[in-house]
Design brief:
This protein has 323 residues and is of the alpha/beta class. It has 2 domains: 12-105 and 214-305, 3-Layer(aba) Sandwich (Rossmann fold), CATH 3.40.50; 129-208, Orthogonal Bundle (DNA polymerase, domain 1), CATH 1.10.150. The chain is 40% helix and 13% strand. Strands 1, 2, 3, 4, 5, 6, 7 and 8 form an 8-stranded mixed β-sheet that branches. Helix 7 packs across helix 8. The longest helix has 15 residues, at 211-225.
């Protein structure tokens, strides 16, 4: 096994403590990336089936797969398809699922992937390296659609102004170019802590990769894939993701308001709780933030699968989404 991972996994110790993997178990790492969580799970003696929709992550992970002689299986799929992909490999249920939501460090750090404006590169942002690119979107979508995406997925309060500036600046083909357009629209002082382009880049990336839909489907898939007693660990990085995870776990654990003498108790009807909370949400401490600044906004939620049947995707998880 390779000695060190090229990037620092966020809340690694806490994720492994929540998953509690042991020898002989099988775990799903739904977001393989640079393999940080997978390496730590393998070190406990558990097997890992790791998913990633990014072809680069799969190619670069093949060495680790070969070194682990059957203990690691890499799957070039979205994690929302874990149930089908596991079945294709003869696996019915697993002991743990972990998901690290959003863009990976590998994607952010490579200018040619176009996810970040920290270094100029082609405006791409496609996790699967296929389909509509960010350049396609900003150059072809109408002003209203761009504004809606920025407001709903980036929580950008001045979305209409930013969209107007984007349309006026077309064609836009580079990350640095788009960042400059947003800064002109919103005003930017170099000493400001957060670059105003951050929200626009986040919104376009989430839109192109359908990340919130993928998260909702992935949570329902994990519910089906986990055996009774299996553990689910989710690391999210912004409020929209965390709202979806929080609502999923609250609903699936039966944490709904009690009834009154006028209304029946909603907990007495419908499916039985499929999850139970393991611990309170965990956030990075000062030491980890100093070591790994990307952990600043991370939230970890862990839950344990009960013996109840899976609910499937019948319950909407989008209530409370910014829009």
């Amino acid at each position: 096994m390779t000695a060190t991972a090229p990037h620092i996994p966020v809340l690694l110790d806490e994720v492994i403590a929540g998953l509690a993997p042991t020898t002989g178990e099988t775990h799903v790492d739904g977001t393989f990336g640079a393999g940080g969580y997978t390496r730590a799970i393998l070190a406990t003696g558990a097997k890992v089936i790791a998913f990633d929709r990014d072809p680069d992550a799969i190619v670069e992970g093949r060495t680790l797969e070969a070194e682990n002689d059957g203990a690691l299986i890499l799957v070039p799929e979205r994690f929302s398809r874990m149930v089908e992909a596991l079945a294709e490999r003869g696996v019915d249920q697993v002991d743990g699922v972990t998901l690290d939501i959003g863009v990976s460090s590998m994607q952010l750090d490579r200018a040619e992937r176009g996810f970040s404006f920290q270094a100029d590169g082609p405006l791409d942002m496609r996790m699967e390296q296929a389909g509509m690119s960010a350049a396609d979107f900003v150059n072809e979508a109408d002003e209203t659609e761009i504004a809606d995406v920025l407001f709903e997925l980036g929580e950008e309060p001045r979305a209409r102004r930013v969209a107007r500036f984007i349309v006026a600046a077309r064609p836009i083909t580079r990350t640095g170019q788009l960042a400059d357009v947003v800064r002109r629209a919103l005003g930017h002082r170099p000493h400001e802590k957060k670059d105003p382009a951050t929200r626009t880049f986040q919104a376009i990336r989430i839109h192109l990769n359908a990340e919130l839909d993928e998260l909702e489907q992935g949570l329902a898939a994990a519910e089906r894939a986990l055996r009774p007693g299996g553990r689910l660990a989710i690391v999210s990085f912004h409020s929209m993701e965390d709202r979806i995870v929080k609502r999923f776990l609250r609903t699936r654990s039966g944490a709904t308001p009690a009834g009154s003498r006028h209304l029946p108790d909603a907990r007495d009807a419908g499916p039985q709780p499929s999850f139970e909370a393991v611990a309170k949400p965990v956030r990075a401490n000062d030491a980890e933030i100093a070591r790994n600044p990307r952990s600043r906004s991370a939230t970890l939620r862990v839950a344990r699968r009960t013996a109840a049947s899976a609910w499937g995707s019948s319950v909407s998880l989008t209530e409370g989404r910014q829009g």
